[in-house]
Design goal:
about 500 residues, alpha/beta, 5-stranded parallel sheet
């Protein structure tokens, strides 16, 4: 009966899978779509022997054929990285280090977050797009030829942006076409096939903006808020990230799959207010869980240390969790946590936590809740590297002092309406007593447990299995039940006796 629910483990180990090699009919499209010639040049020129190939789930059917082609051309050993520990847009350097790879080739959509450990090559692929239709939609959305527009796009359509620029820039002199660019210190490379010419970018007389792997320039005397944004790609995390960051700009988009364009009608103010609700929940929280949502983005350890320091100065307890891909059941195991803060790449940071039992906020939102020097101005930061010292949005956390204790005021929670003490300048933090879980209550050496998690555990109705040491008699090992959970072999015998005994009496 167990075979109906699961197959034999021995059969799984002995099972063989027949994998077909590349056929002649698919080889041409495969070479062009995955840019295998450029990838092989990257491997051979750097003399890499072990190469990790990271594929998202939707491209895994082609992974074996790509691997065979690369091995036959370069004689290098390839390893296919399938199920990534976190988002597929991030580079999984940890999995590559498990096989001691010399480099990583990342396929498909990417957030272009900088990495530091291994040499990296991005292969975005070439998704089909009708450039003529895209240009026609752009002209319909922006009939004024003097419009100031920045063209953004999903990385999988970068191969067609050069042709689009040729069709538009002569008609629209104030259009700025973004250029894909990686951090110079990250060691990552892009295959420059038909991307925007960097000489055109440098010819602008204004400032240069570099964010989220995109670089573009604005006219002199203007800022990004003076431009509209035209995005090429389907609706998703990338577009949401752009709209939240440049929330003062009007957005429009073109979907290459449906060849339709539209003015984005998403109410950013409503989305910002929803995120601000998470900030208020973070202010009320006393126990914070730091979720590690990436192991590949540079400086993720630095922002974790900064969050720990800020939470300590704000009088909050913090615990760190590394659990891979986040879901509702995983976080439901820790009811002691009042709010979670997610450390992830910009695209995966904006997690919709409406289904979770506890809210999940970003690093920027947690700083808003803890740092009095940072005010809510409508600016939104999704890249946690901007919050670090030297970043564009870094705000120094004020140091507590004795003179400020007397002036310390209480705050009113917008969620519960109750008063909450502003503990950033509390005497416990200044004297360092908040580190201890035992604090002196009075002069009679009575101590009280100040550990928030321990207090929560003491108030729970169920605290786990009770050991009852010395109370449970010692018995010999006996044979347990056999079968599956819904139908043990001897389960029905006792039930029949229980049902018939009242009738006999």
């Amino acid at each position: 009966m167990t075979d109906a629910f699961s197959s034999s483990s021995e059969a799984v180990l002995q099972r063989t899978v027949n994998v077909s090699t590349v056929t002649s009919s698919l080889a041409g499209n495969l070479m062009q779509l995955y840019q295998i010639a450029e990838t092989c040049h990257f491997i051979t020129s750097n003399q890499f022997k072990k190469v990790a190939l990271q594929f998202p789930d939707e491209l895994l059917p082609d992974a074996v054929r790509v691997s065979v082609e690369i091995e036959s051309e370069t004689k290098a050993k390839t390893f296919i990285l399938g199920d990534t520990s976190y988002g597929s847009c991030c580079v999984d350097e940890v999995a590559a280090e498990h096989v001691r790879a010399d480099c990583i080739v990342h396929y498909g959509p990417s957030c272009l977050s900088p990495c530091r450990r291994l040499p990296l090559l991005y292969v975005f692929g070439k998704r089909p797009i009708d450039v003529q239709q895209c240009a026609a939609v752009f002209k319909e959305l922006y009939p004024d030829h003097q419009s100031h527009v920045v063209i953004l796009y999903d990385v999988t359509y970068s191969h067609a942006i050069g042709d689009l620029r040729t069709l538009l820039c002569d008609i629209y002199p104030n259009v700025a076409v973004s250029l894909l660019k990686t951090d110079c210190s990250s060691g990552a490379e892009l295959i420059k096939d038909s991307c925007v010419d960097s000489d055109h970018l440098d010819s602008q007389d204004g400032g240069v903006i570099f964010k989220f792997g995109r670089q573009f320039s604005v006219k002199k005397g203007q800022s990004v808020d003076d431009y509209s944004m035209f995005y090429i790609g389907h609706e998703g995390l990338t577009l949401t990230n752009f709209m939240m960051t440049w929330n003062h700009c009007a957005f429009s988009s073109f979907n290459p799959e449906t060849c339709t364009g539209r003015m984005e009608s998403v109410k950013i103010n409503k989305a910002l207010m929803k995120r601000y609700y998470g900030v208020e929940r973070a202010k009320d929280a006393s126990v914070v869980g730091i979720l590690v949502g990436t192991l590949g983005v540079a400086s993720y350890l630095t922002i974790i240390d900064q969050l720990k320091d800020i939470l300590h100065k704000a009088g909050k307890k913090s615990y760190m969790f590394a659990m891979g891909k986040i879901n509702v059941p995983k976080l439901a195991n820790f009811l002691e946590i009042d709010v979670y803060v997610l450390v992830a790449c910009p695209e995966n940071s904006l997690l919709d936590s409406s289904e979770f039992y506890r809210p999940v906020v970003t690093s920027f939102e947690m700083e808003l809740a803890c740092n009095k020097q940072r005010e809510w101005t409508g600016e939104y930061v999704t890249d946690f590297r901007d919050l670090l010292p030297g970043g564009n949005s870094h705000v120094v956390f004020p140091e507590p002092n004795q003179s400020a204790i007397e002036e310390e005021a209480t705050d009113v929670s917008l969620i519960t309406g109750a008063l909450r003490a502003c503990s950033t300048t509390s005497s416990e933090i200044i004297n360092g007593t908040s580190e201890s879980s035992l604090v002196l209550r009075n002069q009679n050496l009575t101590v009280a447990n100040a550990n928030t998690a321990a207090s929560f555990l003491a108030g729970r109705s169920w605290q786990g299995l009770e050991p009852k040491l010395g109370q449970t008699p010692v018995v010999k090992a006996v044979e347990g039940r056999r079968g599956i959970a819904i139908a043990y072999e001897e389960e029905g015998v006792g039930n029949k006796d229980a049902l018939t005994s009242p009738q006999k009496s």
